[in-house]
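Worked Example 4.2. Consider the chain below.
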Amino acid sequence: MKLFGSKKNNTVPKQQNPATPSTLPVLEKGMVSLVDIIAPSSVEVDFRSIRVGEKFYRTFFAVDYPRYVSANWLQPLIDFDNQQDISMFIYPTSSSDVLSDLRRKIAEMEATISSQAEDGKVVDPKVSAALDDALSLQAELAKGVERFFQFGLYITISSKSHEDLEEASKRLLTTLSSLLLTAKTATLQMEDGFKTTMPYGQDKLFISRNMDTTSLASTFPFTSATLTQEKGVMYGINQQNNSLIIFDRYSLENANEVILGKSGAGKSYLIKLEALRQFMFGTEVIIIDPEGEYKNLTQAMGGEYLSFTQSSPIKINPFDLSGLYEEGENELGFKILSLHGLLRIVMGELNAAQDATLDRALVETYRQKGITPDPETQTKEPPLMEDLYKTLLGMEDQVAKELAFRLEKFIKGSLSGIFNQQSNFDIKNPLTVFSIREMEEELRPIAMHIILDHVWTKIRKNLKKRLLILDEAWYMMKYPDSASFVYGIAKRARKYYLGLTTVTQDVEDFLSTDYGKAVLSNSSLQLLLKQGATEIDLISKTFYLSEGEKELLLSADIGEGLFFAGQSHVAIKVIAAPFEHEIITSNPIEIMNMQKAQPVPTATITETTVKTEPYVTQEPINSSVQPENKPEVQPSPTQQAPIQNTDQPNVSQPIPEQPVVKPPPQDTNQSIPPTQ
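Applying the procedure from the previous section yields the following structure tokens:
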């Protein structure tokens, strides 16, 4: 009997299933896996770089650190302008082991210093500094105030070409040198360095430096995002890192912007500053100004300021058509829908019967002018509000007559002449401001709707980079029809190279409507300035703000707030140059001081006898040559140029119905009297 031997296997072998795991590797050879899809086509490892696919990578590791650092001292590295991967590895160590090593190290440094002193040599300052650090760390570790760690810092940069990689490497080393941080290239270890900075959590280089808790905490990248592009306008300064917020709103998915803030938060200042800078870059700016705040800006920039009042010569017909034809769109249908919204504001709430009657009347009013859905007829002269009024009266329907009565005050009553004439104005100036400050409060929403519709009609005629600013938008957002019109413009603005800026101080009313939220969601830029305690909860819920951001908006100064651009947002402080500030400020104290500081112009007038032609002469008369066949006329005493001191203003009365004649200059240094 064998004590040790193989046991006889009496079991019957099982039949192998062709689908058992042993055959799976054979099947997998002909299948495409996820690794095959995401893997690069090739990997080439060189001494000082590694190429993965079409990109080149190079890894650096830190070997020496500055002696003293402050919080967030690695910010220049985080903000380095190149694609990079940064890995930080932290290894805790036992305090007892560190204390034992420190005692031995301290003894060695003390012995070195004593030996140098005995030999009469100058003590090495590096050894003295290291001894002081070791003694300080030993005391803190013994008290439990600090802990000891080993820290490894690795940076991998990438570029599309080897030349770009070399240039980026030089810039990175320069940036690290400015931080007093010494870095080396992971020569002959590029593959390990590349894997170390991948999100595997594996340190394959293991090049570390001793650090205590305080020093280690300063390396954490507590830094904010930067919103600085190569082109665009400057909105302000990032309060967290003092970088410039330079952004091109037209480079986003849409160029719309929403600005929310309480009264006095600096909304108008910010809007005027952006409008000024966009104007300087060639953008056509159109502003709807309910409060008359943009007059100084318009005059300074040579723009056109239109005061929209009942007595104003500028008229806008709300029935105007753009005259454009786009396949698949009914221009007349869009205009009638827009007029429905306007007339609901004018007439008030309409029931179903009244709305249907109004629709028939609008179609008939255009038909009487020969305008139909056919695009060829839409270039004819459009009807007026009075034509709609007559159409309603002629329908011989009680509902139509009631609608006509609601419209009558705009045709024959106290408000006649405002919206009942053909348009006589076209937007030609690159800076145009429509002011409705002089209009009654109840007419402002109507005027804003008509002006906005007129501007939208003009914008669609030719493609140009434009900025449309709708200040105090809450006037329109409180009416569902006008709010729907604003939302329609915000949704279609990108198609016509238009950026819509919507500004309001009534945040609660703006965000409480579905159209207000829709306008906000269709705006790539959002700026939140100082908010009140009653609105901050709604703002926080809408924008998902943290407690710190809520406190920032509650305590923000004028011109401070949060700047949202796409997925990033930063704290902003609006900054203007001195010459810009003089143009855009609306502070009444500053305006009054600037008016006082302006010098009163004085006139310097010398005694001059002038010979004139009665009532007809416009050319200067030469005293030495008399005109032929014309009698010489001596001016009367009342027509003599008065003799005045240079420090006294000219108080002489103008001569009625008398042409102004300038005397010929007798001497190049002689001052010529100004015209009376």
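The radius of gyration is 40 Å. Residues 1-9, 602-676 have pLDDT under 50 and may be disordered. Compare this with Example 4.1 before moving on.
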